[in-house]
Amino acid sequence: MKIKVDVDCTPEEARSFLGLPDVRPMQDAVMKQLQERMTTNMAAMDPDTLMRTWLPAQVQGFEQLQKMFWSQFAGGPGGRKEK
Questions:
Q1: SS (H, E, C) the chain
Q2: Can you give the pTM of this predicted structure?
Q3: Average pLDDT per run of 10 along the chain, which is 83 residues long?
């Protein structure tokens, strides 16, 4: 025997029917805090701050990084060897 029941209601109606609490105010508060945190952390996303954070302490500028890459390419396998 098969019984099929179709229920046509909104999530709010189903929640109140089943006696579940309304978590909308809590969700709104958490989302507001999340948005504030993301907004304050967006300042750390500028390229200068990212480069300072990601690169090691001995590489302080883009020029030094560029020189390091070029020296690796020039002296690597199949590259030009300086004498």
A1: CCCCCCCCCCHHHHHHHHCCCCCHHHHHHHHHHHHHHHHHHHHHHCHHHHHHHHCCCCCCCHHHHHHHHHHHHHHCCCCCCCC
A2: 0.43
A3: 93 91 93 91 74 65 77 69 52
